[in-house]
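Model it.
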Amino acid sequence: MHPKRTIYVSRKRKSAAGLLSILMIVFAVLFLIAGILLSRGFFLPCFLMTGLYFLYDILSKRDYEYILENNILEIDLIRGKRFRTEAHVIDLQNLVVLAPHDHEAVAKYRKGASSGNIRKYDYTSYDDAVPYYTMIAYENKKPVKLLLDLDDAFLAQLKQDYPERVYR
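Modeled.
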């Protein structure tokens, strides 16, 4: 039995996300000032813009947590640092292959290849300095393709347990 391993991945925000947040705040303040000085009718757009800002803030911040315990990989999606959702639970006995994204072992699963229509899920940080891996596994008897940022300890444990299916 191996110890429980956890990786926390923070996704980089897109550059336009910051600009959009600032624009929402500016418009909310302008509507508030217009509501005070001109007409109370501007308060409704002010409240709506403020609500939209908080909703956008929650939905645009994504983090992921990979938990490996007892040959079960659980991937959780964390939105806005507050709301956790279980995205995947994969029994690694159903692992087909795990390899770096450009490895020949996963080449037949790339878009446009003849492997059929496999649903793809991206749980990477979008950081160019961090290499990501492609995992092909069966979840609920359906093949899924997961893109993951894995560290060396995580990979070493998986390589030890599934040497013929894990490539580094």
